[in-house]
Amino acid sequence: MAIIDKKNRYQDLVKLLNQYSFEYHTLDNASVPDSVYDSLFSELKKIEAEHPEFISRNSPTQRVGNVVKGGFSKVEHASRMLSLNDVFSEAEIVEWFERIKKIDPTLEDIFFADIKMDGLACSLIFENGEFVRAVTRGDSFVGEDVSSNVRTIKNIPFFLRAEKEFAFFENGRTEVRGEIVILKDDFDKINKVRKEQGDPEFANPRNLAAGTIRQLDPLITASRPLHFRAYDIIRENPKEIKTNEFAYLALKNLGFSVNEQAKKIIGIKKVVDFIEFWSEKRKELPFNTDGLVVKINNRDKFSKLGIVGKQPRAAIAFKYSPEEATAVVSDIVISIGRTGIATPVAVFAPIQLAGTTVRHASLHNADEISRLDIRIGDTVVVFKAGDIIPKILRVLPELRPKNAEIFNFEKELSKQFPEIEFYRPEGEVAYRAKGLNSELILKKTITFYASKAGLDIENLGEKNVNLLVEKGLIRDLADIYNLQKNDLLKLERFAELSVNNLLQAIESSKNPELAKFIAALGIRHVGGETAKILAEKFVSFENLQNAELEDLLSIDGIGEKVAESILAYFSDDENLQILNKMFGFGVKVQNFAKNEGVLSGKNFVITGTLKEMSREQAAEKIELLGGKFQKSISKTTDFLVIGEKVGATKISKAEKLGVKVMDEDEFLKEINAN
Ligand code: IVH
Predict the structure, then answer these.
(1) CA distance readout (Å), 221 to 29, 74, 212, 450, 588
(2) 82 lines ligand 1 (CB under 6 A)
(3) 179 in contact with ligand 1, CB cutoff 6 A
């Protein structure tokens, strides 16, 4: 993105996020879910990190919380109520610890972790064991006195139950911090009643809790079941509380609810295990949570590590990937599926959703595109829950580039597929390619895959392909690798020998060269030469599969038409399923290897056991010298290396195919001489 575009994007984001923030904090009436705010916010933070010169005084990164509403008196916090930095991956948790360990090399890997509750932070002040005041976080320095409302919360004690080693908390000032939440069950009950009474339902427990705590009528507050869970306790003399583990013990003993799930964890690896353990199970908790909090257990070390901006270094919030996030649509590609139906797909840079990486979402048909009015360049909200296929929920029109054109599906079809005629059958939403049906497309796909332009699989010519498709033995490309001898023998045209030959040829095609495999797939506009360029550039099939529009366009010799066609191929979930099925049947595409050596252009098959090395070691050595290791013998094989206990049939087959046979000693001489 050009710098001027980036600046515009930055300013648009600042404006929109401030609007969202106002709706959320001041009006208690958010128009978008937190995850949408969060993903735009992290984009903003990224731009600010790259371009500090852009940072505006009014950027939402420049404050904690929001405007304090009138009505409640203001109270200064004895110590600031900080927030936490978020991380989104396990790797970032490990990096966080490495970073602070550099600052304090004596730091031990002893942590205290808890569930991060989705409510609002509150501080409770106790003087000589008696509750005197409750204050919201506010702007981290000054909050609001919400004591009268907090008094309605049944699980907050008015007097500390100070016993034994915790008795000292009864003397002087004790501050307890925690989260005010509304439990999911209570929230559902409240909304059920509102629905029955015809009142509008509340959006989520967090907003309801925040709205309730700022209620001016305590009667309304009392009728809403707020709940408090503590996570911190502070004394004037910090030495009285040495660890966070002790803090939680004290809180529990003094009469506060704390999460039973909170615990001391030794070793950063165990922290990662804790994160994984809660990733699904958190959904069973009685309150909403989107992550975990991880702190250094030793409180002296914690405070010595200090604060950066508004966040302490020694604690971090881990956020599970949300089910909704934003993405910028880089292209809308059209894929002609196996049935001849044209399906538009929105393509974007990868985002994390519900634990998986998502880089495209089907737009289903032309009607869906018009309904969403989605255009190339749009920022969209993408949704994915669990196993559900990602879906575009809506466009954020505020972030639409000025020159974004309405997407004209029919025009695109005729531009991208000039040779195909499309029609829209009565009562259907989809466009279909005329004269193409699923059987015809399948026959063509398989024949091409097995042809000389593809993987050159002997005995799998057009006639046989047609027969296998018609008999239902091949329903997709992957089925080639699942043909069973018994089924084939039942076919008229196949005798034992031809079945064996066919299966053998198929077996030999399981380790294709990258360029050959790419070409064999029959991706539109990707012929042999383009496939070679792609193989050299991306090295592995996986890299090609994950390539983004810019990656493709940056290659010499790849234009927009080709790039879009490749994207369309890999954005079609059906294609991805078939590819995975092929890999499941043992197809392993070789990585592109530019090894030039004495064995360049020579293909080897090894049979029997070698004395000096394993087959894997031999394969590695062959490839290192520029040669190719094949799983089984075919007419492309140059050498058959025979180890011990090899049957005569193998050797005679090699000889028939004109393959040179060598024993282990000759082979060793060949590779060791070089
Ligand atoms: S510890 C320096 N523990 O998350 C703040 N916070 O972004 C240390 N929160 O302001 C906070 N559950 O309102 C902590 N188990 C938990 C929490 C928790 C929710 C909130 C809290 C805090 C924010 C940090």
Answers:
(1) 18, 20, 6, 72, 63
(2) yes
(3) yes
CA 511 – CA 631 distance, rounded (Å): 7
> In angstroms, what is the span from residue 394 Cα to ligand 1's centroid?
31
The pair of three-digit structure tokens given for residue 593, joined into one six-digit string: 């290897």
Render the burial of 310-343: b for 16+ CB within 10 Å, e for the rest: bbbbbbbbbbbbbbbbbbbbbbbbbbbbbbbbbb
pLDDT tens per residue, range 89-100: 899 999 999 999
Q: What is the DSSP string of 559-572?
A: -HHHHHHHHHHHT-
3-state secondary structure of 183: coil
For ligand 1, the distance from its centroid to the CA atom of residue 229, given in whole angstroms, is 11
Kindly report the pTM of this predicted structure. Answer: 0.62
- Which tens digits make up the pLDDT trace of 474-514? 999 999 999 999 999 998 888 999 999 999 999 999 999 99
Ligand 1 pocket mutation pick from 80, 84, 311 by most atoms within 8 angstroms of CB: 84
The Å distance, Cα 565 to ligand 1 centre, comes to 47
| Protein residue whose Cα sits closest to atom 1 of ligand 1 | 231
Please work out, in degrees rounded to the nearest 5, the angle formed at the alpha carbon of residue 277 by the alpha carbons of 272 and 281.
145
CA 378 – CA 374 distance, rounded (Å): 7
Q: Which residues are catalytic?
A: 116
315 lines ligand 1 (CB under 6 A): yes
253 CB within 6 A, ligand 1: no
CB 356 within 8 A of CB 306: no
What is the model's pLDDT at position 51?
Answer: 94
Residues 6+ apart with CB under 8 A from 193: none
Beta bridge mates, 663: 642
**Residue for token digits 């193998």?**
650
